[in-house]
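Reading a protein record of the kind used here takes only a little practice. To see the layout at work, look at the sequence and tokens printed below.
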Amino acid sequence: MSFLTSTQIKQYKDNGYVAPVDALSKEEANEVRKELEFIEKKWPNELEGLGRNYVHLISPVFDKICYNSKILDAVESLIGKNILICGTTLFIKNPNEKGFVSFHQDAKYIGLEPHNWVTVWVAITDANEENGCMRMWAGSHKRDLQNHNQKFDENNLLTRGQTVENVPMNETKPVILKSGQMSLHHPTVVHGSGLNKSKDRRIGFVIQSYIGTNVDQVLGKMYVQQARGEDIFKYHEHVARANKLMSQRGIELRRKANNELSKIFYSGSDKIGKY
């Protein structure tokens, strides 16, 4: 069993995140990267734009990560034993590109209430300050949701380029992870990441998010899978796991899920970004 220690749980409660936590072996992480790059080569553009979402619905390799017992033990430590997989996202920063993630709070536009959920960020490659690892504004989760400017920056990896202004950089901390390690962060902690200035890709696979079964989607519809426990609330549509890479069933399901996700992320907006 890999439940979080009392010290790790205190870090999460005090700071809004906990890291690093072991999840995959380096060998497992390398296999995930091979799967990703195989998809990119065989099906160009499938993992670009909206295609970066819900890859676990089209790939058994990514699906397997979502059910990893080390990850689920850690998640259970924070949100309880009744756990749903609500979605996944790839955050890829290639060298010589200008991709970044502005400081934001996940809960601002995602419509999941109450906030009994957690985002898990799994490092498929090392994540460090050189290649643009996340930075967390420790303790910021204890405040209410903050105002976000919608900038729609060309190189911002967020949907609306949503940005919390005037984040004190001296109060933010880098989340440095080795490949296979993960961080877990609270829905309202302010976080972002800078440019990849290294010579290799920075790849993160993000389960966004694991939600308690008591969490509803107040802005739209979500396709979920039962990771642990039982769902007595039945707020969401449960779907089958991926059993074959790029199956027609998986492709169609991911298309539906992404259509619904776009409605949620752009609710109330008169402009649409590339993600």
